[in-house]
Amino acid sequence: MLRHLIASTLFACLLVCQLSAPATAETKNKPPNIVFIFADDQCFDTIAALGNEEVETPNLDRLAKRGTTFTHAYNMGSWSGAVCVASRMMLNSGRFIWDAESRYREADKERQAGRWWGPQMQAAGYKTYMTGKWHCRAKADQSFDVVQDVRGGMPQQTPTGYNRPLVDPKTGEVTDPWSPSDPKFGGFWAGGTHWSEVVANHSESFLKDASQIDQPFFMYLAFNAPHDPRQSPAEYVNKYPLKNVRMPKNFLPVYPYAEQMASGKGLRDEKLAPFPRTEVAVKTNRQEYFAIITHMDAMIGRILDAVEATGKADNTWIFFTADHGLACGQHGLMGKQNLYDHSVRVPLMVVGPGVPAEKQIDAPVYLQDIMPTTLQLAGAEKPEHVQFTSLLPMIDGQASPYEAIYGAYLDKQRSIRTDRYKLILYPAAKVYRLYDLQQDPLERFDLSSDSDQQGNIKQLFADLQKLQKDLHDKVDLGSLSDYQPGAISDQ
């Protein structure tokens, strides 16, 4: 039986006192302040301190050095092409994917009943604040005490931002009508101030006010960055000359099962670059991806400085994560509607009193575990409907409650990931793929045809079906004999 089914028992462990660091007499008995910083589309491997030599993230590096990083944090997937929606519904409701989906249209009733994250923090005595991307059906302005500039799923798109850049097959000339730094295209520039800067501006203002009150505060700071259209000031784009941008080692011109897994030419995210993928298109998209991450990082630095300026930093917990990752040229894909680690795995860092500095925990968690973690910090009892698990036991040295990580996209993809292997199934294509993640972390070499792996594949398939039942997944995968091994390794 997978241990996530006893998550409620683990949650009840009284670990807050064990996690407490030496504190001043003024703060040791006060509920901690909580700052939740949320990126959009940020892959787990886009932070310099965690091993990416290409990208500049000095402020996210600050968090990594000050606190504990969960290196294997995941999103379960999505019931729609807008993966952001499913991720945020799970986060704010505390429910696993299919239970969150079943209540999707009743989200505002759930909020009114006090079951959503913001109202639960209010009930625990917190002054709550939200700014930025929401993308949930429940009303944001009624979910927090203070709400400013609620954004939609993504900045307004323009046709110019798709199918680019193009290369003339005869002359090799590159044409690209788009500029990530030109305000005329709107998007992140709509309203006159870049949306990441707006989040920082509002956060600073709230923190200045919060410094004058005794009530603990909970901040939900949701960037739209680095979601497309990936726009940032020219000085940030110039940090990444195209000649210096590396091609992903797991690059493919075309992913062989893209159409059958519903991540093909008709998907909006995949239309950002031309088909088949070209080196210049992938490098350009990655250049702009890194640039908007570095720009967002600068805004996060402003928020961290503002927390310090309150005089309450010693009693403040900071969480940073993203709603999901992004392929951005890996495996021939541009979007996040797939079950490879680049698209389901995210950064997750925790800073707070007593949290070990520069520590990494590689056991698996879900990003949505942050929600019950904050409830435990607030002294609130875990509600029965919350299925995710507090991270505090793991910070204190206990094992993960999840023996395996589940993944799903529509009815077209399913996966199970252990500490070593990942099995991916494409029901429409009747194909399965197997990767040894210890030997092949970039998921390049499909082992599904390996005769030595057949027993392993059978066990993983059975474990996946058990997870489906536990998570109320109604898709019938049939039997393993209905599937064929993947025909192509991603080399």
TrEMBL record:
GO MF annotation: an example: metal ion binding
Signal sequence range: 1-25
Family that this chain belongs to: Belongs to the sulfatase family.
EC number of this enzyme: 3.1.6.1
Pfam families per the UniProt record, alphabetical: Sulfatase
Keywords carried by this UniProt record: Calcium, Hydrolase, Metal-binding, Signal
Region of interest (Disordered), ranges: 153-178
This protein's name: Arylsulfatase
